[in-house]
Amino acid sequence: PDIFHCTSPVPVQLKGIPRVTTVHDLIPLTLPQSTQVPLRSYYQIMKASLEACAAVCCVSEHTAREIAAFFSLPEDRLVVTYQAVDMEQYRAKITADFQAARLSEYGLEPGGYVLFNGAVEPKKNIDRLLSAYLQSGVPLPLVVLGPGGWLHNETEARIASMKNGAKQRVVRIRYLDRLSQLAVMKGARCLAFPSLAEGFGLPVLEAMACGLPVIASDIPPLNSIVSHKQTGLLVPTGSPEKIADGINEYLSNYELREYCRLNARKAVLKSYRQQDEVKSWKKVLHEHTVSDK
Q: N or C terminus of the chain with fewer C-beta within 10 Å?
């Protein structure tokens, strides 16, 4: 092979073949209480892996800055390769009938719920989202879509206790095929994604590409994807009251939601295209592997 690409850091090298590693985040180091990763082993493996690379592909500028700070790698070996989304290939397949059938399985209606999309784990800040949802008083279900992740049992128990509310209820959906997942996403009134830490924030980008209004954390890198009151709403991560205010502001202001929704889709189509991701990868191959081999 001409190149050895690792999609996560591993201390493996093929003799004479340049290695490129993609790093999504350093959350075990920056938010250790949210994982069960042994920190010392994680750091040592990450350091050995990255130091042996011809190039390190970072999914955001934020991840690149964190890698530089923790491991003191030369800047010319850190390359930002943004993730891209392509929802057009699914658009024609998600008909109104298909969407209605999927939503009816969970007692949902198009435009009639708030959505969280992601793993249930501490870094996603779901407990504060649940509190914010109750404080908001919005008479729409909150749908929590995604698998269980790290340390999820207590949050899952709280979600289960909220499934039968008279005015407010939480609908838990763990696994869906890709088309059904996108049908649920497109059917929501808005996405609420108050995560504590992200390497990039792909669920936010996918929602924007689907034309779904987004409420996201005011943290890097999410605040480099979402522009406040231009392509979505940004809220503080630590305050259920502020998250509730954001939910209420968005749901009560149709004009703002539409303005952000339309701007967001245009922004994704302009800045996060698959052809741009391919171009950045070709640049990595040319500048960091061909000359090193």
A: N
